[in-house]
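Hi L.,

You mentioned the student needs an example of a multi-chain input paired with its predicted structure. This one should do, with 139 residues in total across all chains.
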Amino acid sequence: MATNRTFTMLKPDAVEKGHIGAILEKISASGFRIVAMKLTQMTKADAQAFYAIHNERPFFGELVEYMTRGPIVAAILEKDNAVEDFRTLIGATNPADAAEGTIRKLYAASIGENAVHGSDSDDNAAIEGAFHFSGREMF
Ligand code: DAT
Ligand code: MG
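Structure written out for the whole complex:
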């Protein structure tokens, strides 16, 4: 059964450039309710585990370096059809291919540093949310 939650990270580049407020404003204006949220920094082991599905890819080392170089904003978001609607809001993985008005089109520099994460399935939304938050941190 489809759930109504997704998981997101505002990645280190978005935090470094001061885009937290603008991105959260866009997320809220698009009808997502914040269920959980914190500023945190992933360790190398965290990033390797979170992105384990990509560990054979040529960009894996760079991805781990990037995701651990500074703080991120981790959040769980609630909305009808949350996973799919949030993927639409963030746009394509490569900002060069992202639709006008999407978060990646507005704020991402490159495919490697693409500003924001969005879960790609309901199962992964639950796994990724639980990776970052305990039950007492979800509201
Ligand atoms: P998404 O974040 O859109 O779900 P993904 O799951 O395929 O994309 O990849 C995870 C992250 O890995 C992505 O946000 C940025 C990085 N990445 C993906 N493809 C890449 C590539 N060809 N070169 C560099 N980094 C890449
Ligand atoms: Mg993905």
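You could point out the following to them. The pocket of magnesium ion (ligand 2) is lined by residues 120 (CB under 6 Å). The longest strand covers residues 33-40.

Best wishes,
N.
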